[in-house]
Amino acid sequence: MGTKQGPRTPRQKYGEELRLRRIAAGLTQEALSEMVVCSPTLISHYEAGRRLPSPEDARRIDKALGTDGFFERWLEDLETKYDKNFAAVAELEQQAVLIQQFALTLVPGLLQTDDYARALFEAYRPNHRKEDIDKEVVIRTERARVLDGPLNPVLWTLLDEAVLRRRVGGPQVMATQLRKVADLAEAGRLRLHVLPFEAGAHSLQQSLLTLMSFADSAPVAYVEAFQTGNLMDDPRLVASSRTAYDLALGDALSHQESVVRVRTAAEEHEHGHQ
Q1: pLDDT tens-digit map of 46-78
Q2: Domain ranges of the chain
Q3: Does the reported pTM lie above 0.85?
Q4: Cβ(53)–Cβ(75) under 8 Å?
Q5: Does domain 10-78 have CATH number 1.10.260.40?
Q6: What fold does the segment set 87-270 form as a domain?
Q7: Is residue 82 packed enough to be buried (19+ CB in 10 Å), middle (13-18) or exposed (0-12)?
């Protein structure tokens, strides 16, 4: 029985088709790069799905391979509204049957209210334009719709207690945000666990981690840092990430205790006891 391969994103399918068409044309990556006027490394990135070509490069690829505009037309369908570091993850969220996420200091994007998300974007971009922030908030809200679909994934959320205490957007914004998390948990929309301060050091205290499982593909792990993200499908790294998640989960409060802790924090924010 073969080993399951990780799920392929649309950009990976694009890259695989490019590789197959290049080989069928009898070209090496270096030969194609000369015809496209780019580096062989860039062709390698295109074929691995790590990057998408520019429209000009796609036109040159079509000319080199004789594909009559095929790659340029497909490229238009792959243009994404997400940041380049997050596009693949957003695509995989649509395919996942189980999402397990851990957050160290902030509420995960799938659970954020508009006002909480807006406060974060404004903090990230001190010289922001209002229309740009409005666009980012809409994109984040649309991403969360994956939880409302007919095939919505099971969402398992582990929050460090610091998430509950860091006041983002002011007391009322924070209280509303925490109540949304608690409401979703009580409605059965997510499995919630809080890792309390009294648990001390834990296996995920230096990470912001998301694990995704799929019906017919191998699982993946995504680790996020400042303006970067690392999507991993190496079985050893995924297994190590899952072990770290499970160890931290073992130190967390139960689902019901976590809901109570979140609601208590919401009340404290609202009444100024933080």
Answers
A1: 888 767 788 889 999 999 999 999 999 888 777
A2: 10-78, 87-270
A3: no
A4: yes
A5: yes
A6: Endonuclease; Chain A (3.30.870)
A7: middle
